[in-house]
Amino acid sequence: MSMISHVLVANSLITAFAVVGILMWISGAISKYLTFGRIHGSAIAIMLGLALAFLGGLSTGGEKGVADLPALAGIGLMGGAMLRDFAIVATAFEVDVVHARKAGLIGAVALGLGTVVPFILGVLVAAAFGYTDAESLTTIGAGAVTYIVGPVTGAAIGASSPVIALSIATGVFKAVIVMIGTPFVAKMIGLNNPRSAMVFGGLMGTVSGVSGGLAATDRRLVPYGALTATFHTGLGCLVAPSILYFTVRAIIGS
Amino acid sequence: MTISGVALLAICTLLGGFLGDLLGAALGVKANVGGVGIAMIFLIAARLWLVRRKLLSHGLKTGVEFWGSFYIPIVVAMAAQQNVVAAAKGGPIVIIAGVGAVVVCFAMVALIGRLSGRVETMDEIEAREAEALAAPVPHFKSGRIG
């Protein structure tokens, strides 16, 4: 037993790859067999990750979720700021400028609204729950944009870990509602053509939420929604820790 | 070479991080301002430049795309090391902010759709394309978007 844990501790990053891989695999199976593909495997994996962090936090009493367990310390490196930023930057490689132009003005308007409107809502809710500092307000607001923008913003402006966890949970919850709710409201909001799918992608943002929700509505709409949604996180990461943060700071005057 | 892709990505990330720090210092905050976004813009620009010069090799692409495809697992790892116990004490804020954001955005999709007028639905586009295929008109190019 101690030999096994020695191997796990000595190869902590490799252990993290294996653990997250197994987690993704289980999530894929849950997505396929329990939700019939309605909830994306990646969203389930993130929820499982948060659940594990909860259990880890309970058992160790620490602040870093499962990364406080010695054998899983590699999760801390894998999910840390360095590799996270590296991987997010890499996703920009898939952005096709020609395709982006096709989304056009209306996609850009939707993107702008999709960043600012959820942000304002998140900030207001956070304020209603008694948060008063600009860092927490901005981070929770950014979490209402997507579960990536929340932690990226929180890390950039120095929010506390509980607030960052709150912003991730908000973003993940939003993604899950988008996935489950989209097929039910599709008719009402006119989601039956490529243009509205692009508007939808820009407004909703979360790629897993948008692609999952559109796939459950009409598979043909997925690429259009994903096209604008891929810009959403980048835009959020750009404006939330900068313009939006400064605006919040200016308004509350600290 | 695969390493050239990873190196390109690394250089863009470092450059973005550096400029983000500079921007933060210029704005008077002890934070990195938009470093990730700036790095993404560099990478998009680099990709365009490489494509134009026909320098975008398979290895280079693999090096970047591997890391791009790694982003969901990394986010899962990120989720697994958050202070969820503390967040759980926040409780209803997650539900209210999450539901609120989705409801407002659904409403805006409907609003933008109404305001910008009617367009062909996916079914109509497919029907039109099927018709165009069945009876090809000379000099007629179907406006296929996909």
What is the N-to-C order of secondary-structure elements of chain B (H for helix, E for strand)?
HHHHHHH
Strand content of chain A: under 5%
What is the total tally of β strands of chain A?
0
* Average of pLDDT of chain A: 84
Protein chain pair with the most extensive contact, residues per chain: A-B, 113 and 84 residues
Describe it:
The complex is a heterodimer of chains A (254) and B (146). Chain A contains twelve helices and no strands. With 254 residues, chain A is mainly alpha-helical. Chain A folds into two domains: 78 residues, no CATH class; 163 residues, no CATH class. In chain A, helix 6 crosses helix 10, helix 6 crosses helix 12 and helix 11 packs antiparallel against helix 12. The longest helix of chain A is centred in the middle third of the chain and has 32 residues. Chain A starts with a helix and ends with a helix. The model of chain A has no long low-confidence stretch (mean pLDDT 84). With 146 residues, chain B is an all-alpha fold. Chain B has two domains: 81 residues, no CATH class; 62 residues, no CATH class. The longest helix of chain B has 25 residues. The C terminus of chain B is likely disordered. At the A-B interface, helix 2, helix 3, helix 4, helix 5 and helix 6 of A face helix 1, helix 2, helix 3, helix 4 and helix 5 of B.
